[in-house]
Amino acid sequence: MAIKIIPYDKKFVCAAIEIWNEVVREGIAFPQEDELDEISGDEFFRGQSFTGLAGDGEEIFGLYILHPNNVGRCGHISNASYAVRSDARGRHIGEILVKDSIIKAKDLGFKILQFNAVVATNIHARKLYRRLGFKELGTIPGGFRMPDGSFEDIVPQFIALT
After folding, report:
1. What is the DSSP letter of 36?
2. Which of 51, 93, 105, 149 could be joined to 45 by an S-S link, Cβ 3.0–4.6 Å?
3. Rounded CA gap, 75 and 86, in Å?
């Protein structure tokens, strides 16, 4: 069955927080350190401009959140985060999520999609973003603290939504 993106609904909160928290626990991609529970997770996912869930009609394999990157004069710039269940990685679900978020960001009136904290060692994500037309803005040395306390560089990215 094909993977489709559906809007977040509270009935999927357990699946969504399981996927999100797995990435938080891995500690190599998201800046968050605190896991979500059913209450905080539902508030978090509903509080986004859009939360999209990737599924096949029976299971949820991944998700993305989309929201403004800043406010006021920079409110036209969006930001997104992506999470794919570890047992579903390698099936191009991340690509489906990113492509959908680009379309959704345009639909919501954003002009740019920017990622602030792409860890330099996240080679798969960086290759995907480059293939989809994102541009790297440079490197912030030691911008991300890894679970072992060491620091990795981050490489902010953006794509114009024209």
Report:
1. P
2. 51
3. 33
Instruction: Give the helix, strand, coil percentages of the chain, each rounded to 5.
Output: 35, 30, 35
CATH of the domain at 83: 3.40.630.30
Tell me the C-alpha distance between 1 and 32, whole Å.
33
Task: Supply the range of the domain harboring residue 58.
Answer: 4-160
Sequence-separated (6 or more) residues with CB below 8 Å from residue 91: 3, 61
CB 65 within 8 A of CB 48: yes
Q: Which of 82, 62, 77, 78 is nearest to 124 (CA)?
A: 82
Token pair listed for 98: 């990113």
Within 10 Å of residue 36's Cβ, how many Cβ atoms?
19
pTM tops 0.85, yes or no: yes
Structure-token match 């394999």, residue found: 61
Number of domains into which the chain is organized: 1
Contact, 118 vs 159, CB < 8 A? Answer: no
Helix (H) or strand (E) holding 61: strand 60-68
* pLDDT single digits (tens) 11-49: 999 999 999 999 999 999 999 999 999 999 999 999 999
29 touches 119 (CB < 8 A)? yes
